[in-house]
Design the sequence.
């Protein structure tokens, strides 16, 4: 009964923040000081992406290819790997993660209300949401090992001596829909709450609400299924970590070529495809709404916003964010339909769309990296003073409380080169993956080659869109 | 295996070759500054703030790395003018002109605002040399 109340109360409380937050147009949390990439780098990136795509396709035609056969190599026996994956190391990490989670909530509730001196906003929005994403891409799926919600539930199970297997079986037709909805809510707070989710107290409340939803989901449908389909971070980090060169199976760790983790299966559900596209479209949305192109659009639409009342602007932005993955989905489905026509395939368009869905993950991940890594580098430094004084009470636990972040840690032009490098890299990976998938899906070589044309067009569209947004002049901030 | 190495070489050739094809030979704005680097270019901008709003002067101040930048601000109210990133501030008094001077050593886009009322006014964009 308690669970049911909690299940109803948590979304209601999320909703209450959603509706009553007035847009304040305060600073978005954190600044990265990046400049738009110059036109010549945009053109260079686009040209390199297209040329390299043809190289990949041309050379690999008809071969399962270089990486596909390299396979995995077990590395669990190496003493360094044994040490970092020992039960002691794992429980230390798990404990540390749970501690940081409770610290973030505690700082949010009891610490200073000033977001710049309280550790909670930097810890969650920057170090965790960006940093842990990139860590997962590099070292693999750490999250299930350290997930604090999972840790707490395990403690609970140990304490009560009963397993949380769920009251009902998880409805399979929901697919990843709960995780998708939670993803949208978190993005909404990140981008559209007018900075309110950067306020320590609001952030703590958000995390507590999320915890209630997680515990309720785990109670109702069992820990295993909820963390597979409903817990947003598990789905998100799980997807990102598929590009990592490390993978764990059972108690063994394997080394593998980058990105091939995305070749193991087809997408199991349409909701996961929309989830991947939301990874891509939300970054595009966040970039686009800072440009002067969006600003001009806004000026023309203001009468329309006003007709929806004081929150009209926020309502429209919320709708735009919600619709954004479907715009990318439409482009995807059109080109998959073109693929079906070219190859005269008997498979349904939706089935082909699921077959090739994982090949979009590299583009989504690199675009996130290109867009946000400067923020992590610049704003992430705030964690140094904050870790010495997490509540903003004037402490100096580790002697770093007075560290002043170096905002010039990375030059604007170095940022441009890295951005274009990441985007082209992701593009090539995606083209390569789609190519290997095509060889599996289409038995005849002619079909496989033909299928690559629409996919190539698709990847070029996504990549150029990403680069184009990065190259757009910013909108005037004072407006 | 031989073929794979050739492939990587071709890829690398495209990446590097295209870079030099697309990269502008010299940035046209710069040659005088380069020959004259001992005396940095001084760029002065005048901003007028009325009723916490920018009524005259550029919303986007564009300079090049290494420039000496002077921003002169006149305001009709007491305020604090703050430039992010560089962390510089200057006090504004009614009907007086205050100046904020800095050497554009950091590249990037830096917002400036009225600190007391947290009003964004515009940005300084420092382009790399």
Sequence:
């Amino acid at each position: 009964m308690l669970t049911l109340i909690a299940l109803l109360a948590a979304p209601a409380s999320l909703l209450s923040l959603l509706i009553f937050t007035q847009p304040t147009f305060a600073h978005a949390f954190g600044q990265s000081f990046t400049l738009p990439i110059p036109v010549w780098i945009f053109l260079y990136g686009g040209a390199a992406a297209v040329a390299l795509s043809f190289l990949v396709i041309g050379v690999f035609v008809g071969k399962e290819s270089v990486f596909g056969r390299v396979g995995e190599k077990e590395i669990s026996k190496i003493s360094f790997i044994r040490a970092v994956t020992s039960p002691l190391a794992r429980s230390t990490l798990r404990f540390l993660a749970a501690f940081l989670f409770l610290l973030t909530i505690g700082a949010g509730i009891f610490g200073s209300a000033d977001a710049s001196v309280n550790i909670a906003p930097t810890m969650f929005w920057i170090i965790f949401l960006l940093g842990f994403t990139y860590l997962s891409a590099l070292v693999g799926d750490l999250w299930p090992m350290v997930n604090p919600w999972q840790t707490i539930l395990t403690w609970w199970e140990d304490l009560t001596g009963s397993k949380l297997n769920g009251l009902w079986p998880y409805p399979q037709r929901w697919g990843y829909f709960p995780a998708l909805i939670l993803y949208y809510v978190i993005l909404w707070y990140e981008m559209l709450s007018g900075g309110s989710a950067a306020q320590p107290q609001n952030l703590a409340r958000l995390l507590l609400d999320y915890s209630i939803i997680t515990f309720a989901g785990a109670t109702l449908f069992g820990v295993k299924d909820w963390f597979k389909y409903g817990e947003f971070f598990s789905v998100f980090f799980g997807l990102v970590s598929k590009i990592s060169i490390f993978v764990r199976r059972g108690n063994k760790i394997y080394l593998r070529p980058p990105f091939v983790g995305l070749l193991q299966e087809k997408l199991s559900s349409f909701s996961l495809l929309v989830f991947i596209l939301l990874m891509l479209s939300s970054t595009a949305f966040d970039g686009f709404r800072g440009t002067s192109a969006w600003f001009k659009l806004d000026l023309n639409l203001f009468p329309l916003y006003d007709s929806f009342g004081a929150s009209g602007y926020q309502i429209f932005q919320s709708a735009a964010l919600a619709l954004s993955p479907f715009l990318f989905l439409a482009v995807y489905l059109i080109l998959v339909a073109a693929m079906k026509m070219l190859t005269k395939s008997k498979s349904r368009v939706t089935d082909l769309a699921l077959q090739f869905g994982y090949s979009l993950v590299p583009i989504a991940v690199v675009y996130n990296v290109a867009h946000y890594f400067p923020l992590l580098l610049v704003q992430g430094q705030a964690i140094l003073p904050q870790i010495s004084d997490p509540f903003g009470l004037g402490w100096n636990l580790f002697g770093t409380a007075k560290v002043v972040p170096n905002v010039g840690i990375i030059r604007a032009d170095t940022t441009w080169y890295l951005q274009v490098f990441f985007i082209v890299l992701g593009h090539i990976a995606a083209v390569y993956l789609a190519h290997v998938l095509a060889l599996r899906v289409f038995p005849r070589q002619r079909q496989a080659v033909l299928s690559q044309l629409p996919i190539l067009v698709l990847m070029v569209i996504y990549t150029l869109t990403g680069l184009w947004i990065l190259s757009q002049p910013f909108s005037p901030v004072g407006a | 295996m031989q073929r794979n190495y050739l492939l990587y070489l071709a890829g690398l050739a495209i990446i590097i070759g295209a870079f030099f094809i697309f990269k502008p030979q010299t940035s046209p704005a710069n040659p005088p500054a380069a020959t004259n680097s001992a005396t940095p270019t001084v760029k002065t901008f005048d901003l007028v703030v009325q009723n916490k709003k920018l009524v005259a002067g550029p919303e986007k101040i564009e300079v090049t790395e290494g420039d000496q930048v002077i921003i002169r601000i006149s305001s009709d109210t007491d305020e604090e003018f703050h430039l992010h990133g560089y962390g510089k501030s200057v006090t504004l008094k009614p009907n007086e002109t205050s100046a904020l001077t800095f050497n554009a050593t950091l590249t990037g886009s830096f917002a400036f605002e009225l600190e007391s009322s947290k009003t964004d006014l515009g940005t300084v964009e420092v382009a790399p040399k």
User: Anything to note?
Assistant: The helical segments of chain B are 2-22, 31-35. Chain B touches chain A through 37 residues (CB under 8 Å).
